Amino acid sequence: MEVYSFTKEDWENRLLAIGEPKFRAGQILEWLYKKRVSRWEDMTNLPSGLRDKLASEFPISPLEQIRVNGSADTTRKFLFRLTDGQMIESVLIPASPALYGEASDRRTICISSQVGCAYGCKFCASGLDGWKRNLTAGEIVSQFLRVEELGGEKINNIVFMGMGEPLANYDNLLRAIGILNAPWGIGLGARHMTVSTSGLVPRIRDLGAQPLQIRLAISLHGATDEVRTKIMPVNKKHPLADLLDACGDYVRRKKQKITFEYILIRDLNDSSEQARLLASHARKLNAKINLIPYNTVEGLPWERPAEACQEEFLSTVRRGGADATLRREKGHDIAAACGQLRLQVEKSFAHTPPLN
Ligand code: SAH
Ligand code: SF4
Q: CA 2, CA 145: separation in Å to the nearest integer?
């Protein structure tokens, strides 16, 4: 297992096993997470013999940046290569009062949890190529470290809305959240982390039962089983009533507001009946609704509704008594469709003749 997957306890056990005192764990973690040093030889308060031993047993390999889209004052999307050659994306979203509707200093990272996705939602680029593998906890944590380093700014908010279904990689996700949250790790409060799921009901219940105040976002995208099943195969296994029931438990246990994400897709889920039903589901749970105009994906037939229709949908939802916002900024399109950059680059690699 790699270095950024280890908890404090893991380090203590490893150190004891090689005859080193436990307190070295604290020193190592201080270098990795407080001083952000990623070379063993630079960790000067460790004896040099130990540094050599650690270097040979636990090589540190920061994520390799392949490409970046966007500029410093907008959303930036990073493409990284993992040690086995697979690629993932992370997105950095700067403070944006327009997005959050308040004077906000939120700097958000959108993190991937898997390479590809097995859930095959019909509108999503991440699932187009199927599922490759789970990310390790270390690969999840590394996205935070690397994007903070490359972006040059402290990040204070995490959304698990990148490639993959985070709750299908539950153990590694929770291990990573533990490291991101721990005082010896990144030290970010669980209330500043949001896990987005397409609706894995049993795992939503598991997440509700564990102690951290992690926020929950549900990719709803349809207010009836009929519409939802058309675009989200997961709905056959976990229909809407079960999903809403698990959401209700989460809200009661955590005493938190959850979010419904709802992509607006033309002629698919944008009727006024869907808007009314969506409002009714949200009102019962006191959930917040995020309406997101669909971001077109090459090779997929879907389109976003005209702006007037988006506004009409928003008004209907609000008239139904629900708290809703509509994402209007063009700059955020880039964040709305994780998986696209990887797909583009993989396609362009595939079309590049081999060098010889
Ligand atoms: N698998 C998780 C998290 C990753 S997807 C989930 O489905 O919730 C993160 C969000 O991006 C989801 O709400 C997803 O539905 C949305 N999304 C995917 N493709 C999109 C697109 N083309 N345009 C807008 N949003 C998209
Ligand atoms: Fe997977 Fe989420 Fe995309 Fe569905 S929307 S295919 S669950 S990443």
A: 14
Q: What is the pLDDT of residues 29-55, one digit of tens each?
A: 999 999 999 999 999 999 999 999 999
pLDDT in tens, 290-344: 999 999 888 899 999 999 999 999 999 999 999 999 988 654 454 445 555 565 5
Interval between CA 97 and ligand 2 midpoint (Å):
27
Whose tokens are 């009102």? That residue is: 283
Tell whether ligand 2 has an atom less than 6 A from the beta carbon of residue 121: yes
- What pTM was computed for the model? 0.93
Structure tokens given for 257: 């507001």
Q: Which residue is it, tokens 């246990």?
A: 253
Cα of 64 vs centre of ligand 1, distance in Å, is 25
Would you list the DSSP string of 122-138? TT-STTTT-EEEEPPHH
Indicate whether residue 197 lines ligand 1 (CB < 6 A): yes
- Return the SS3 of 16: helix
The minimum-distance atom of ligand 1 relative to the CA of 119 is 1
DSSP 141-201: HHHHHHHHHHHTS---EEEE-SSS-GGGGHHHHHHHHHHHHSTTTT---GGGEEEEES--H
Helix (H) or strand (E) holding 263: strand 259-264
